[in-house]
Design a protein that fits this description.
Elements (H helix, E strand, L loop, with lengths): L5 H11 L6 E8 L2 E8 L5 H14 L6 H8 L4 E4 L5 H6 L2 E6 L4 E6 L28 H9 L7 E8 L5 E8 L5 H12 L10 H7 L11 E3 L2 H9 L3 E5 L5 E4 L17 H30 L7 H11 L6 H21 L2 H21 L5 H13 L7 H35 L2 E2 L2 E2 L41
Antiparallel strand pairs: 1-2, 2-4, 3-5, 4-5, 6-7, 7-9, 8-10, 9-10, 11-12
Helix pairs in contact: 9-13, 9-14, 11-12, 11-13, 11-14
Length: 475
């Protein structure tokens, strides 16, 4: 073994790390031997370093090598021998590098420390009954949350690094024997082909996993709840976990997932079916209500009930805007209020929402700028939007698009647009899974967990919509 010049080695790696202020080194002289330590003080538990590494090594009288450190000196941390090209990577991960002069070894000790959030109920997926744990920004914690739900030797985690500067840890998780190996290979290949400066969140890799990145429609599932991820993996799907992100991605993805909620699986199946029907109706109202109201008002007022027609005529008489501009104005007003309430502090956001919705809306009606039916229709559409909160951004765009079509082409234009979008969605394919399954194509077996939910005792096989193995779920 070659003798190391500890001082020169430490200085070399300090320069490689651009002499950043948090790069810290210590040199310990033990008789005729020198031991050097190099680490990031911003990423390392200083107390643990002093009490668990520096002090035990300084008090130990034997040779400083891998075997002695593991068995006799340091017992609470992982110690491994590394090569020179692994030194910087281990430092950046929060490890302490030990340079031994006599033995000529490079040893890495993992005592990574940084503040993390405690798993709690995610704000995007609250439940009345069921698990309340949610993913956090630490990938090790997230993997633990999944392992706690799937105590199986077939649970596989594959790691890779993505990002030239971020070097972000990305993990593919699936159940061997259930997930289709070809789907796993396709996802792994796409992730390995990503060449990007940095991955800050899971959404940075989302577009690379989509078959049609330019499309408006969502093509990758996402959730903050480990029980949902575990349930999807049991159906044969693959999870993608990204360090520093509480959002876990899942593939393949189908549109019916947006009609489902974790609450559905912790309550009576009759009630779950009713709620799913309400969600579907909510999405239809959110997309079509403003455009349909405008089309009826401009082109098809003769099919409206007489009493309702008289009410609309009375409330819209004397308005300075045309019906089309009025609806655009109200929609824009609600969207501005939403964006303001989203970005202001919570106590100010709530007050702004109340002031905007009540005072501005009421004042606008009394001032004769907007009509009460128009406000009611847009408000109903905006509220119905959040029956499927994960699709809120896509539905908002569709809402505006159908508003323009309804105001320009009437009901015929709306029907034509609906036919076009349904046909368009039929062309989607998520890693071998039809986007509109189990309704197009119709898969009778999978309808048990479609809009209408059957009891768990009747779901004896895994969904045929997805490419998976071991179809039997229960006997």
């Amino acid at each position: 073994m070659a003798i190391l010049n500890v001082e020169k080695e430490i200085e070399k790696y300090k320069q490689e790390l651009h002499n950043s202020f948090d790069v810290t080194s210590r040199i310990l002289i033990k008789g005729d031997d020198k031991v050097g330590f190099l680490y990031l003080k911003s990423f390392t538990d200083q107390q643990l370093f002093v009490e668990g590494i520096f002090a035990p090594i300084s008090q130990y009288n034997g040779d400083i090598d891998l075997e002695n450190l593991q068995d006799k000196v340091i017992k609470n941390s992982d110690v491994k021998e590394i090569k020179t090209d692994e030194i910087v990577e281990n430092i950046l991960k929060g490890g302490v590098i030990v340079f031994t002069e006599k033995k000529g070894l490079y040893l890495a000790i993992d005592i990574q420390f940084y503040p993390t959030r405690t798993p709690s109920e995610p704000p995007t997926s609250p439940v009345i009954q069921g698990p309340r744990e949610g993913f956090v920004e630490d990938i090790k914690t997230n993997i633990t949350l999944i392992r706690r739900r799937l105590y199986s030797k077939d649970l596989v985690f594959k790691e890779m690094k993505i990002g030239k500067y971020s070097n972000t840890q990305v993990v593919i998780a699936y159940l061997d024997g259930i997930a289709d190996k070809q789907v796993v290979k396709d996802i792994e290949k796409r992730l390995k082909n990503i060449d990007i400066d940095g991955v800050i969140d899971s959404y940075y890799i989302l577009s690379f996993l989509e078959n049609k990145p330019d499309s408006l429609f969502k093509q990758v599932g996402n959730t903050e709840k480990p029980d949902i991820v575990a349930g999807k993996m049991l159906e044969g799907r693959v999870a993608i976990i990204v360090d520093n992100s509480p959002i876990v991605l899942t593939l393949p993805f189908t549109l019916i997932e947006e009609m489902q909620s974790s609450n559905d699986y912790y309550t009576n199946h009759h009630y779950a079916s009713l709620v799913r029907v309400v969600r579907v109706l909510g999405i239809i109202i959110a997309i079509l209500a403003p455009g349909t109201y405008l089309a009826l008002q401009l082109f098809h007022y003769n099919i409206l009930p007489l009493n309702f027609l008289i009410t609309v005529a009375d409330t819209t008489q004397g308005l300075p805007f045309t019906p089309f501009l009025e609806m655009l104005f109200i929609t824009l007003l609600f969207q501005i209020l939403y964006e303001v309430s989203l970005r202001l502090p919570s106590y100010l956001g709530l007050a702004t929402s109340i002031v905007g919705a009540l005072i501005l809306g009421d004042t606008g009606v009394k001032a004769g700028l907007i009509s009460p039916p128009g406000v009611i229709v847009v408000a109903l559409a905006k509220i119905a939007l959040y029956t499927a909160p994960e699709q809120a951004s896509q539905i908002t765009v569709l809402q505006c698009l159908f508003l323009i079509i309804g105001g320009s082409l009437g009901l015929l234009g709306l029907v034509g647009a609906l036919i076009y979008f349904v046909n368009y969605l039929n062309t989607f394919d998520s890693y071998g899974t039809p986007y509109l399954a189990p309704y197009s194509p119709r898969i009778p077996q999978d309808l048990k967990d479609g809009i209408f939910k059957s009891p768990l005792t009747e779901m004896k096989t895994r969904p045929k919509s997805y490419n998976n193995k071991n179809k039997v779920r229960q006997k």
